[in-house]
Amino acid sequence: MKLAILDRDGTLNPMGDEYITSADEWTAVPGALEAIARLNHAGWHVVVATNQPGLGRGLFDVVALNAIHAKMHRQVAAVGGRIDAVFYCPHAADEDCSCRKPAPGLLEQICDRYGVERDEVRVVGSCEAHLQAGAAVGAQLHLVCTGRSAPLRPGGALPVSLPPGTQVHASLADFVDQLLPATPGPAVPLAAAPLPLSGHGGAVS
After folding, report:
1. Which of the residues 7, 24, 84, 94 is marked catalytic?
2. 164-194: per-residue pLDDT in tens?
C-alpha cells in the first residue's frame, strides 16, 4: 500500500495565530486539495495526522472539530480526491500523552492500522514536530514551505532541528509534482463515498 501522512494546519489550510474553531473558519491552501486528488489517482492513500490542543484547552469541542473535517472532506471530494481518515491528538501541550507530535504515537497508530512498511510511508508537513514524529517511525520525510515554514525555500538554509534526510518542497502541490512527475491532474471526480469521521486513539474511519 502507498500511504502519505499529511499534517493539517499549515499544509492543507493556512496557519494563523489563532486556532481554527469552526467550519466557517476553515479554508484550503490553494492547490493542496487538488494535490491530494492527484495522489489518490496515482494509487496513494492519504491520511491526516494533526495536533488539536484547542480541544484540551476547551476552545472547541469534538462536534466542532468533526464539522471542520467534514467540510475538508467535502472540498477534497469536490476536486476528485479522498482523505481516508483523520487521526488527531486532543491533548494540550502540558498533558502527558504519547500521541502529541513530535511523539510518534499518532503515526504509529496509523502505520499499524494500515499495515504498511514504515520506510515506504511519506510523511509530509510544514512543521518540525510532524517530521520529527515521522523520523521516529522511520518514514520518508518531506517538508512543505507553507504555514510556519513559509519563510524557508527549497535549496536554502534549513533549521538544524529538522531530521536528517528531510526533502524540501515549495508546497504540497510541488511535493506531488516531484513524486509523480508524469501523473496528470484528475479529469473526472472519484465516485462518491461516505465521508470518513475524525477520531483519535485509532477510533477513525
Report:
1. 7
2. 999 999 999 999 999 997 544 443 333 333 3
Instruction: Determine whether 9 is an active site residue.
Output: yes
pLDDT of residue 205: 33
Which 8-state DSSP code applies to residue 189? P
pTM above 0.85, yes or no: yes
The tens digit of pLDDT for each residue in 77-89 reads 999 999 999 999 9
What mean pLDDT is reported for the chain? 89
Residues 179, 90 contacting (CB under 8 angstroms):
no
Smallest CA-to-CA distance from 176 within 29, 77, 71 is with: 29
Domain that holds residue 31: 2-186
In this structure, are residues 124 and 74 in contact, taking their beta carbons and an 8 Å threshold? no
Map residue 41 onto helix, strand or coil. helix
Q: 113: domain CATH number? A: 3.40.50.1000
Q: Point out the catalytic residue in the list 9, 84, 96, 174.
A: 9
Structural domains in the chain (count): 1
Given a contact cutoff of 8 angstroms between Cβ atoms, the answer to whether 72 and 24 are in contact is: no
7 part of the active site: yes
Report which of 127, 163, 130, 161 is spatially closest to residue 147, judged by C-alpha positions.
127
